[in-house]
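TODO from last week: model DUF302 domain-containing protein.
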Amino acid sequence: MSTQVTYGMTKSLNVPFETAVERVTEALKEQGFGILTEIDVKATLKKKLDVDFRRYVILGACNPPLAHRALSTDIHIGLMLPCNVVVYEDESGTGSVVEIADPIAMLGIANSPDLMPIAQEARERLQKALDALDQ
């Protein structure tokens, strides 16, 4: 199931966490995005606060041509890059949730009409990656 939230796109998957991370990484790659960063939130919270949390990663995804176009349009837009993708265990612990930040919502903060075509293309590519998770 795919839904649109105010600042992101969400899809629930009936697959284990590790499988979801692998599938979303591959789907993003097919749309020209590489993973620049991976933050293991569960491990970080355990290490820093000694608290237990469900498996949850934040992936920093980047499409270099789109990033270059955005930065060439507005040098300050780097504050909004890369595109954040989160994958986490659902409440049952047997499924997973994938959420992708909506580039239009993120770049909309910049209030730059010149960035909107770039944001739209990024959104379309990210939505295709999310839709590919159903296959």
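Done. The first helix runs from residue 17 to 30.
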